[in-house]
Specification:
heterodimer, A: 368 residues, alpha/beta, TIM Barrel, four-stranded parallel beta sheet, three-stranded parallel beta sheet, 15 helices, B: 368 residues, four-stranded mixed beta sheet
Chain lengths: 368, 368
């Protein structure tokens, strides 16, 4: 790769980053658009930074997803999961069913229950706290990783109180950490195209900061591959890096590669067939290099499959995410790698790379 | 010798020894990216930046098979439910459909029906030639050739001659699996042995019938087994020059007896896929082309493998029940426009080729 005029050669830029230089947006964009052997060079630099910041261990969390409903007032074009009331395959769990599901999860020995749901039309702020309450009753002591800025904004608006109050109520009901989802791409122009009904960028950031300040940490995510530009991806990383400078509340960064098959955006020809393998490698590698203040970068095997997950662990990632006993969002979009990944298979993936596998909590405390 | 020196020597013309090849295949960590990078350079030196593909159609004639290999989810015993064996009308209907789709290759892909004779294969080739003149009939593995030769009690050379007379274009280099008899005794005990496979290919090449070379890896064989296999292919290519390409086929494990009975791992890891392609590119210094089998590894990994020594995306296929029945998610049809997206995404040009790698259309240069 030849260097654009007036810029340093790639090898020097990468050496500088390894030495502590903070990537600018323009430099991040340049890395994301690399082709040819430069892709492997960038992955290798990210791998070295990973080794220094996060060590050799590949981590995972024993968790269970709990999808309470697929009813949703939104119709995001990238989603194949949401349904309307009256749709034949719409579902809504009762609080009793939630409690039972949580009980089963606890029996399986999970340390985290992750509840992700649609925005059902009749849900209020109290509904979300009641769901957490049922989880806590069914699985006392298990970390509840739930909600996201969109659900908080929705619950607060439906109940007529502030998002800060909604966060306090959730915490009182047992919330351990917030999902950093609904971020998608934090560029309003892109959000208008792919998720017009969701909170705007500033609102997403405001609620995350509010949660972090209230002592509720969260993950950070990006959902990429629906046709946004490299500049959009870097702008997104910039928003996350700035928040992290301010609060330090992000536990990890989770790049979610768009699963396109059964989504309206792809089917109507308004989005490409997801990200390419090159884009997946560079998203992980550039995130590792750009987000110098986030300790962990996840390889989402659900989204990219276990083969590519192995490669992403060589390109800056240090975490394999959860065992996920049920996950309907990816399968509804047509992904085939979802369901459940046995820790034994995760250990094979890690050992194959010459790295140990270690179980962690949601907040990255080591277990065992 | 350190790895960097070994790789630069290899790029300068050093022929890898089996021990060195074994070392490359066993690499972990950053070495993997260095080996992939060297293989990418070797690919560039040998064939430039073209990514090639062939417009072809697989044609399944029967799923009845005498072998019922443990790594296969496709073959069924004669008389079992769900079996089929097409006659002239159906074979010709499918071949005509292939012609309408503009394919330059028809690739019959079938079980080895215990009742098939040389005449059965002559008929099949003849039926296809009748309705698809000018299309390369890429057919018959050494297993099929040796099977009907033994049944007819005539030499392999005579079988090949009669098949060519009937219209055979090129021979399939399949049924190679792993060319180590100890491994074959576990994964495909009733198939022809290593020596027979090599003899049939040698005979065909000597008569001017070219073939592919394949390796089916990930069913539990060792790195040494893989290198022995590559070494046999390299040796034969030195003798004949008749191989058009190596087609590495990563084992699809999900619905196969070997995996389900716990006698084989869950296929190769992404690291193994990258290193198989990269090491093959470096080891097989007398092969021009290394294929990336998107039906086996998925499109994301295909992109990564094109950065690791691969230069060909194989065929459009239109159907591949062998991979689908074994549990592959993405294995039926890949539109050339999607292949073009993957090639261009890497900064490379997609070119349409014939079975024997004549360039039929250079394709547009990648957009910057």
């Amino acid at each position: 790769m030849t260097s654009p005029p007036g810029t340093r050669p790639l090898s020097r830029l990468l050496a500088d980053v390894e030495g502590g230089h903070r990537l600018t947006a323009a430099e991040g964009e340049r890395l994301l658009t690399a082709t040819g052997p430069a892709v492997l060079t960038i992955a290798a630099a990210a791998d070295r930074v990973r080794a220094r910041h996060a060590g050799e261990a590949v981590t995972f969390v024993r968790n269970q997803n709990l999808n309470v409903t697929n009813l949703c007032v939104n119709r995001c074009g990238f989603c194949g999961f949401s349904r309307r009331e009256g749709d034949p395959d719409a579902f809504l769990l009762s609080l009793d069913q939630v409690r039972d599901a949580a009980r089963i999860a606890k029996k399986r020995g999970v340390t985290e229950i992750c509840t992700v749901s649609g925005l059902a039309p009749h849900f209020t702020g109290q509904t979300y706290t009641a769901i957490l309450g049922a989880c806590r009753e069914g699985a006392p002591g298990v970390h509840l990783h739930a909600g996201n800025p969109q659900e908080i904004a929705y619950g607060a608006a439906r109940s007529g109180w502030s998002t800060a109050e909604q966060i306090d109520l959730l915490r009182a009901a047992g919330l351990g950490s917030l999902c950093g989802t609904a971020a998608e791409i934090l560029v309003d122009e892109v959000r208008r195209r792919i998720c017009p009904g969701k909170v705007r960028t500033a609102e997403w950031a405001r609620i995350i900061v509010e949660a972090h300040r209230a002592g509720v940490p969260s993950t950070a995510t990006i959902m990429y591959g629906t046709g946004e530009s490299a500049a959009d991806r870097v702008a997104h990383l910039g928003v996350l890096r700035d928040i992290q400078d301010e609060t330090g509340g992000f536990t990890e960064f989770v790049p979610l590669s768009f699963v396109h098959y059964r989504t309206p955006l792809y089917r109507s020809g308004r989005a490409p067939a997801g990200a390419t393998g090159r884009e997946d490698v560079l998203m992980t590698a550039v995130a590792r290099l750009f987000l110098d203040n986030i300790a962990h970068v996840q390889a989402s095997w659900v989204k990219v499959g276990t083969k590519l997950a192995g490669i992403l662990l060589l390109s800056g990632a240090d975490d394999l995410g959860g065992t996920l006993y049920e996950e309907h969002i990816t399968s509804a979009a047509g992904g085939s790698g979802d369901g459940y990944l046995d820790p034994a298979e995760m250990a094979r993936l890690a050992a194959d790379l010459g790295r140990p596998l270690r179980e962690r909590t949601t907040l990255y405390e080591r277990i065992g | 010798m350190n790895l960097r020196t070994l790789l630069s020597d290899t790029l300068a013309g050093h022929r890898l020894t089996p021990a060195e090849g074994r070392r490359l295949l066993g690499s972990t960590g950053q070495d993997i990216l260095a080996i992939a990078g060297a293989a990418d350079e070797a690919r560039e030196d040998r064939v430039g930046d073209r990514v090639t593909y062939v417009r072809n159609q697989n044609l399944h004639v029967t799923n009845v098979c005498k072998n019922l290999c443990g790594f296969c989810g496709f073959g069924r015993p004669k008389g079992a439910p769900g079996t089929y064996c097409f006659g002239k009308d159906e074979v010709q209907r499918r071949a005509r459909l292939a012609v309408e789709r503009g394919v330059t290759e028809i690739c019959p892909l079938s079980g080895v029906h215990p009742d098939f004779t040389l005449e059965s294969y002559e008929d099949l080739v003849g039926w296809i030639r009748e309705v698809a003149p000018g299309v390369d009939i890429h057919f018959c593995s050494p297993e099929e050739v040796s099977f009907v030769a033994a049944r007819a009690g005539i030499p392999v050379r005579e079988v090949l001659g009669r098949l060519r007379e009937a219209g055979l274009g090129t021979l399939q280099g399949t049924a190679a699996e792993i060319l180590v008899d100890r491994v074959r005794a576990v994964i495909c005990p009733t198939k022809c042995d290593t020596a027979t496979w090599l003899d049939v290919i040698r005979e065909a090449h000597g008569m001017g019938i070219r073939s592919t070379a394949t390796i089916m890896y990930g069913a539990g064989e060792t790195g040494t087994d893989r290198i022995v296999h590559l070494d046999l292919l390299r040796g034969l290519q030195d003798e004949t020059g008749g191989f058009t390409e190596l087609v590495p086929m990563s084992w699809i494990h999900q619905n196969t007896p070997l995996y389900r009975s716990g006698r084989a791992p869950a296929g190769a890891t992404g690291r193994e896929d990258v290193l198989l392609i990269a090491t093959a590119r470096l080891y097989l210094d007398n092969f021009d082309h290394i294929q990336v089998s998107w039906g086996k590894v998925g499109l994301k990994m295909a992109s990564v493998l094109l950065l690791s020594g691969g230069d060909d995306l194989g065929g459009t296929m239109f159907e591949d029940a062998v991979s689908v029945d074994a549990g592959a998610g993405e294995a039926s049809y890949l539109d050339p426009s999607e292949m073009g997206r993957i090639a261009n995404d890497l900064g490379r040009r997609l070119c349409w080729r014939s079975t024997t790698y004549e360039i039929l259309d250079e394709g547009p240069p990648p957009r910057p």
